[in-house]
Predict the 3D structure of the following.
Amino acid sequence: MLSLFDPQPPSCELPERFPSPFDASTPHPLARRAADRLQAHLRDGLARRLELDTDGKMFGVLVVARSDGKLGFLRAFSGMAGGSWEVEGFAPPLFDLEKRDAFWPAGERELAEIAARMREIEQRAQPMRTALAELTAQHEAASSELRDRHRANRQLRHESRAQLVAAKLVDDDRRAALHALDQESRADTAEGRRHDASRRAAREQLAWELRFLDDEQAALEHVRAECSRKYLHAIHDTYAIASARGEHRSLRSLFAPNEPPGGAGDCAAPKLLGSAYRQGLRPIALLEFWWGAPPVTGGRTTGVYYPACRGKCGPILAHMLDGLAAEPAPVFGNTPIAADEPRTVFEDDWLVVVAKPDGLLSVPGRGGQLHDSVLARLRRRYPRASGPLVVHRLDLDTSGLLLVAKDETTHTALQRLFARREVTKRYIAWLDGDVVGDSGVIELPLRVDLDDRPRQIVDPVHGKAAITEWRVLERTGTRTKVAMFPRTGRSHQLRVHAAHERGLGAPIVGDRLYGKPDARLMLHAEALTFVHPHTQVQVMLERPAPF
């Protein structure tokens, strides 16, 4: 399992501290050397054997030192590969496979039986749902026709009553005629009641049978949930996660009081550290990369290095690195920014447009961390301003024009313009790749990656609509300069739409989340156009990209 370096690197090449697994921007040369070796094996046929053409995967390498000082590296993949938890030459899972095999096959069968019963119930219920929908539609159509006829009858009776009042009839004749009209009205009412009663009876029988099946389905759903919870806890109990100090903790204790997210403990980084500790090897440097088909959610490209995810791996790696001299996880947004930033581009009595530099947050970070931001600086600059000030946001790494309101009324009016899509924004970006086509529209719904915030992923079921127009401005052969026009304002929308294979298929240069880190993110909000909510004059502003 341990692959030794040949030739052995000199001790001067070793890092003083274990690099943070949450920072892939500057991988250690030894980790990169190990990753190159693994990637060569993947290219030479290993990827095909592991079925990565259809199911791409995160891989990792961990540079380690033996007790005799010899240096080598371990290899691991996230989850399963080729349908197996264990593949020769790779670190095994963190859980006890024998303990899991003692109960999980039976658990899988039990859950499969419940799922089969639920499918059988749904197969019985589906024709009933269809029949009920058809009956309801027929009832509505017939009821609508009956209402129209009764409405016409009512109009005729109204006209007849008016004529009777005007006619010179003896009282008995008039009373007889009015009584006849009243009888017609009662007949229409009775017909409507009979119609509703007959249709209701047919529907109620079906609805009762469906309620019975739905109750049975709900009961099975409850049983399945309890069963899943029982087995999930049993699975969690098969993990014993060691720290560098030799302290073992359970998976659930690391995430308490919350439940561990799905797949926690099965990523490459925890597997590598666990394998090193079991073999008495000293961790030196770690690196993870993606290989194979990209996930449908996007954000992963073959051969690109990625940091460990914070949601699933954060608590686990914090424990596993305890006792090891390791670099802290990077904190983005704490880079010193000149005191005169952000600089004003436009200002009047009601609003301000500033040029946000890259590296400065639009608003303070969560939990009171990273307070320095455009909002914090403008509150000091405009102490008499009221309301939320910042009308929209730019990502930390994005530079460009940002709209700010000096009072709450203006803020509300400007946000209304954004909601009605009456604010036009133009972004400039350099993409890492040659884009196919010269212009187009991207529509890929987005939501946050719950296991790896703040990353966003494509999700056609639970994602929110995200629309971007784009146009190529320049090509260099390896890079493409584009103008991007967001028609919606989702987090990281332009970055995901650029990187995703169903978008432009080329990440923005310098995108540490969806592409490769560089000197900066080559994304800039260059132009902003809107109608001033107070003067009704169109405001058109531009700030050329600084790259």
